[in-house]
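User: Hi! I'm working on a homework problem where we have to compare a predicted structure to a textbook description. Could you give me the structure for the chain below?
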Amino acid sequence: QVQLVESGGGLVQPGGSLRLSCAASGSIFSMDGMGWYRQAPGKQRELVATFTSSGSINYADSVKGRFTISRDNAKNTVYLQMNSLKPEDTAVYYCHALIKPYFVSRATDYWGQGTQVTVSS
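Assistant: Happy to help. Predicted structure tokens:
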């Protein structure tokens, strides 16, 4: 069974920082495109930052220069360092990866359970 487990959300004041972590576990044959999305109340889920299949990184324009995505391949873990947080960054943050488990014919999308990030004074 494959799962993605996030941690690191919480309440922070504007201008503050948080670091999110997402660990993938289970019977993983291959994993690609690991990254972060977020969904604010009343809005659609949107890309925050992700690694592409070629290893490059895509950031949403709204977080460029403030957020940094990184990964530890040995631990199947991706991180999101969020600095200079703004109230508009408030959302549930979801980890995503395209994973092919062992003994499964093709890769599918996996999502974490989400972690709440609230930026407020």
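For your comparison, note the following. The mean pLDDT is 95. The two ends are 40 Å apart (CA to CA). Good luck with the assignment!
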